[in-house]
Amino acid sequence: MDALPDHTERFLAATSPEHTAVQERMAAHAAAHDFPIIGPVAGGVLRLLARLTDAERVFEFGSGFGYSASWFLRGGADHVICTEFDAEEAETGAEFMREAGEADRVTFEVGDAMETVGAYDGPFDVVLIDHQKHRYADALEAVKPKLAPGAVVVADNVMHGPIDMSDLLAYFDEGVDLPPGDSETRGIAEYVDLVRASEDFETSVLPVGSGITVSALVG
Ligand SMILES: C[S@@+](CC[C@H](N)C(=O)[O-])C[C@H]1O[C@@H](n2cnc3c(N)ncnc32)[C@H](O)[C@@H]1O
What we know:
By secondary structure, this protein is of the alpha/beta class. It contains 9 helices and 7 strands. It has a 7-stranded mixed β-sheet with strand order 3-2-1-4-5-7-6, sandwiched between helices. Helix 7 (136-143) links the parallel strand 4 (124-129) and strand 5 (147-156). Helix 3 crosses helix 4 and helix 8 (165-174) packs parallel to helix 9.
């Protein structure tokens, strides 16, 4: 199911920031390997958030080969910590960062992001959650004590991706229960419920890319 009417998606795509030469190669690599990257429309928002928070340190849960990280770097983030299960993806990412002359601004940590986050104290100015959907809520809880004042947490795939948007819509709009077996869709619903109910965050959903939540730490 498309997240947006076709003309809206086309308009956003036509007006999104241009890729750099290395990002263009990253996007081609993603297309060739059918790898899900956040894309330039949502990427432009990541760049903006890094810029607006004057980000020193960004943490990502699930980085692939660093495409989303490249947008944080373009927004002026001093350093991005990337986490990735797959060593080959991380090595490809490190290679892209060397090509871009940005290797010293990115750390690729191979392993489970939920463990890696424990090894860092923060403070993080921006966090991107883009790993296993059923672990989004746990990721937020794990990283919350490490957020800088005014930090922003972004979560991807809240409208599109390995989830059932029809079920999610019925849940939020009509109060229909979610199917018990679909842990990915349930994980997104749990996460959106969590950030919307939390007094520690102000959250909006932005229909860019696969749909992102943007949650600002308040207080
Ligand atoms: C959707 S992709 C990330 C895309 C990336 N954020 C981008 O837009 O360029 C998700 C990645 O997270 C990795 N992943 C999933 N669960 C993870 C975990 N618990 N720890 C580390 N990596 C994980 C997967 O191997 C996959 O490469």
